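I can't quite decide. Please look over this sequence plus structure tokens:

:::
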Amino acid sequence: MEFEFCVVTGGRRFLGRSVVRELLQSNRWTVRILDLDCAITLDDEEQSSILGEALKSGRAVYFGVDLRDETELRKVFHGASVVFHTASPNIILRDFNLHYQVTVQGTRNVINACLACKVKKLIYTSSPSVVFDGIHEIINGDESLPYPDKHNDIYSEIKAQAEAMVLKSNGRDGLLTCALRPSVTFGPGDKFLVPSIVAAARAGKFKFILGDGENMCDFTYVENVSYAHICAEKALDSATSDAAGKAFFITNMEPIKLWEFLSLILERLGYQRPKIHVPVSLVMPFAWMVEWTYVKLGPFRTSVPQFTPQKIRLLTCTRTFNCSKAKKIIGYSPRVSLQEGIRRTTDSFQHLRSGVPDITNRNFDGPSKAYRWLGGGRVADILLWRDEKETFGIIIALAVVFYCFFLTGYTFIRAAADLLLLIIAVLFIHGVLPSAVLGYTIEKIPPSTFHISEETVQHAFLSIRYTWNSGIAILKSLYEGKDWILFLKATSLLYFLNILGSISFNTLLATCLILMFSAFCIYEQKEEEIDYLTRITVDSLMHLKEVLIRKLYGRFGHYIKKI
């Protein structure tokens, strides 16, 4: 079988590997893989893959070439009919010179090499960010969107320049070009998106949702992106092709809330999904401060900032794109669904899983364990901060009570009288106020609020009776001297209370109040991790108990038998 030659720049990068694999599977091409490394190194999985076999048979050949060297590019492009230009510097790098030299100058060299070597087709991998200004949201945007006057970041600005250069070169000396704009590519082998999410989760940074969390985004599974490149190559069949000189948005065609996508990745890898909303207006000033400090440090910079205004805009703006043009002209449609892509991706990153083995078993749609423990009513809502205003109100009220009764040094009767006086004054003033003051509605307290039902009183007395009878039953069992385990539990509890007795009552009460409004909330956020550590601790204690019992029985067993 006669194979055509094609070249894949960046062929050892995330997307490039997928494009190479797609080309080899088509059984049409001999693939020249171009990247920076001097020699190709295959991992264990690739040794037995289609790439490994192709390298052995000669259907794939590797070339270590820098895009900034046009002479070397011409040597690789000689005899090739198609070039898939996927190479690009790391998106997180903020080095303008590097981006410009590799993306703009490198792409110019690729175009010149294609023209010199009579390459027929050039497919350039661009980005949807070339039409994003960092301010205005993009909702179902199509290819009619112009390049903005100012881009969100260096990467987007440079990408737009390179894309425009490729499209403008269409038709020169018979060269047909087009550009693909895949939106947020993800999948197995990704070295940026998923590792970054996991690193942030492990550092405790993914507890928060920036903004309202409702912003939508388009993601694209890597296999769909590489398939789009094959579709584009087939569509560039002649100078009259509708695809020639055009750019196309490529997505999975399944827009999803950005924070929901990130949460699905985290959950499947055993991490807690973010829940706490943080207003953008609150964090943006800090991001500007980080940006300003980074710029001022100049040559003394040691790392790239991770918290910048550009990243906040990407995380809080809606950016969805219409793929109708790609579907109509180049025949693209996603082969792998978004959910299936997420499953394959997370399955390939099991080495990044959380150490908690059963976190994925949690039902995030139902109430948390802490909420159920607290009865699932108003008390649970208050202690778990479901309504911040109500929780703050209760905290202030308890703080006033604590101050009046325990910190002022007043006698109990005087403190109670002062507190009741304050309550009566507030209720009386609230009662005499009109129903509306200066345009604000004053909600009156209904009389039923102060009533206690007979059922509630009965329930309270039944609880007291049950507690009393349980205590008597325990004392009776201790008096009979038959239950050693109960005796050990009772003495341990009293010893623990004896230790607590050494702490002042005011300190103990203040600590309890603080724990009431923090411990349950923390447990709800870290339920699986705490349960996991508790289980390990309990298992260790039970093992220690068994060891102690065996040793005690071995030493004093003969005395016990005599008794």
